Amino acid sequence: MITSVDRLIQEVTHSSDLDNLGMILIHKGIVRGKSRSGESIKALEVRCDPEKIEELEQQFSTHPGIEFVKVIVNTGKLQVGDEIMSIVVAGRFREDVIPTFQKLLELVKQNIEEKEIT
């Protein structure tokens, strides 16, 4: 599933208090063609617990200065170039958004199982 950046931004602006919205940070992770060691990758098997991802969304959406949080993880066998995940964090200021985004990304990655198919 491909998630349009424009659609994500539209969702943020339509469901947030615009008086408190100054930054939208979006991460789009894709399957790369080479592993960290330089080995060619044909595909990537991705698994996650959707309930855990939803818990993270809810937890991080209550952080001070944060207006919107969304995490989308594509599971199953993904090909090179396919989207693995989209993460959106939006809020008042970069001082609110960037640290929240970094911690959320770290925790989402910890809750995703990936198996490279070479």
What labels would you give this structure?
single chain, 118 residues, alpha+beta, Aldehyde Oxidoreductase, domain 3, three-stranded antiparallel beta sheet, 6 strands, 35% strand, Molybdopterin synthase catalytic subunit, molybdopterin synthase activity, EC 2.8.1.12, MoaE_sf, Mopterin_biosynth_MoaE
Question: How many helices does DSSP assign?
Answer: 3
- Side-by-side strand order of the widest sheet: 1-5-3
Task: Give the uncertain stretches in residue-range form.
Answer: none
For this structure, the CATH topology is Aldehyde Oxidoreductase, domain 3
Provide the CATH superfamily: Molybdopterin biosynthesis MoaE subunit
Q: Find the structural class using helix and strand composition.
A: alpha+beta
How many discrete structural domains?
1
- The residue fraction in helices comes out at 25-40%
Cα gyration radius (Å):
15 Å
CATH architecture: Alpha-Beta Complex
* Averaged pLDDT: 94
What is the name of the CATH class?
Answer: Alpha Beta
| Helix-strand string | HEEHEEEHE
The 3D shape can be described as: elongated
**Count of DSSP E strands?**
6
**Strand-residue fraction?**
25-35%
Give the biggest beta sheet: 3 strands, antiparallel
Q: Termini distance?
A: 22 Å
Could you characterize the architecture of this molecule?
Belongs to the MoaE family. It catalyses: 2 [molybdopterin-synthase sulfur-carrier protein]-C-terminal-Gly-aminoethanethioate + cyclic pyranopterin phosphate + H2O = molybdopterin + 2 [molybdopterin-synthase sulfur-carrier protein]-C-terminal Gly-Gly + 2 H(+). Its EC number is 2.8.1.12. InterPro entries: MoaE_sf, Mopterin_biosynth_MoaE. The chain has three helices and six strands. The protein has 118 residues and is of the alpha+beta class. It has one domain: Molybdopterin biosynthesis MoaE subunit (Aldehyde Oxidoreductase, domain 3, Alpha-Beta Complex), CATH 3.90.1170.40. It has a three-stranded antiparallel sheet, sandwiched between helices. Strands 4-2-6 form a three-stranded antiparallel sheet. Helix 2 runs antiparallel to helix 3. The model has no long low-confidence stretch (mean pLDDT 94).
